[in-house]
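FORM 12-B: Structure-to-Sequence Request
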């Protein structure tokens, strides 16, 4: 067999395996409520896996629960996790305009109890899914969603692992010693003007003082929103997609989850 033919066959096999994994991923729209607010999330799992497996709560950017967030949930399912992409804003509240996104975010953040309740509802829905091992729950968040995940960790949420992608790092309520129970990997852009080095340093000190298990990884040249292919379309100089940072940060998250969600 020639080298060229071997390469062609290898490529075909890789495509087949990838297609099979994609075909095995199932999704389900989940309607639920927090108080009087209707919410709509999405559950994703991989039918090719048997038995219970870890669950991951996915918290969206300030744009709302959009296609990019749902894609991350499906990617987690491909990797063998069960993912629940939650809704922090309310059913149908999705935008591509920064002004509207800011309004959505401020509305969601004005009541810390409601913010916590919406996360906890999603966590409980995930834990109740028959595919999920309820003792192995993690969370990931992007931008605004990364701040939500950090807030829940600071509040003592029982998460075995977490990943924060270009998240909102600042807080008025730093973690108390021992509050952060699981391991957290914080993935930041080295050229992110929204989360500059001084904020990253302040977060590191907070995590050190709290005795947290953590890793902070900085991607040189990456701006805010580096995991979102549409980041540059918002017309904000601070936002830009970075394919290298996107790829490497996802790999770093999977490496962490493999270690801490055993």
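FORM 12-B RESPONSE
SEQUENCE OUT:
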């Amino acid at each position: 067999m020639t080298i060229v033919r071997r390469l062609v066959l290898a490529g075909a096999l890789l495509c087949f395996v990838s297609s099979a994994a994609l075909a095995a991923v199932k999704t389900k729209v989940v309607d639920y409520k927090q108080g009087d607010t209707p919410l709509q999330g999405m559950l994703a799992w991989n039918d090719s896996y048997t038995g219970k497996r870890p669950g991951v709560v996915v918290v969206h950017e300030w744009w709302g629960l959009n296609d990019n967030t749902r894609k991350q949930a499906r990617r987690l399912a491909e990797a063998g996790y069960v993912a629940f992409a939650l809704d922090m804003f309310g059913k149908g509240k999705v935008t591509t305009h920064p002004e509207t996104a800011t309004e959505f975010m401020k509305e969601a953040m004005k009541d810390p109890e409601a913010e916590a309740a919406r996360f906890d509802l999603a966590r409980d829905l995930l834990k109740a899914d028959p595919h999920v091992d309820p003792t192995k729950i993690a969370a990931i968040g992007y931008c605004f969603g990364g701040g939500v995940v950090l807030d829940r960790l600071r509040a003592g949420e029982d998460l075995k692992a977490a990943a924060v992608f270009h998240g909102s790092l600042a807080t008025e309520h730093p973690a108390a010693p021992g509050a952060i129970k699981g391991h957290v990997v914080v993935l930041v852009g080295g050229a992110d003007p929204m989360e500059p080095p001084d904020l990253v340093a302040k977060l590191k000190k907070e995590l050190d003082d709290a005795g947290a298990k953590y890793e902070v990884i900085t991607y040189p040249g990456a701006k805010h929103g580096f995991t979102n292919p549409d980041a540059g379309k918002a017309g904000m100089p601070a936002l830009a997609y970075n394919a290298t940072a996107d790829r490497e940060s996802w790999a770093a998250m999977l490496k962490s989850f493999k270690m801490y969600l055993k």
